[in-house]
Write a structure and sequence with these properties.
The protein has 91 residues and is of the alpha+beta class. It has helices spanning 2-10, 21-28, 86-89; strands at 53-54, 59-65, 71-78, 82-83. The chain has three helices and four strands.
Length: 91
């Protein structure tokens, strides 16, 4: 049942727009995982890691730490955005 929920969320990302859920299951198989994060929680993502993350609902802040140690918001992500794992997209 968890795989169906993960695929349901993936189908709502901009990258997979127009793909049927069955196509996503065939293409990604068990390589996708759903992580639910509560409000005001932090997820640390390596800039050039091996994973890409998708935001299926809500908002997320992309932050970095300045030289002075302060947290700086670089951008806001909305549902449908993919982030992290830049080599996955070829960038």
């Amino acid at each position: 049942m968890a795989a169906v929920s993960t695929i349901w969320h993936l189908a709502r990302l901009d990258l997979f727009a127009g793909m049927e859920e069955a196509e996503l299951v065939r293409a990604l198989g068990s390589n996708a995982e759903l992580l639910k994060v509560g409000k005001r929680r932090t997820v640390e993502v390596e800039e050039r890691g091996e994973m890409a993350w998708g935001l299926s609902e809500g908002l997320a802040k992309v932050c970095r730490t300045s030289r002075s140690g302060r947290r700086v918001v670089d951008t806001l992500l909305r549902a449908g955005h993919i982030f992290g794992g830049m080599e996955v997209s070829g960038a």
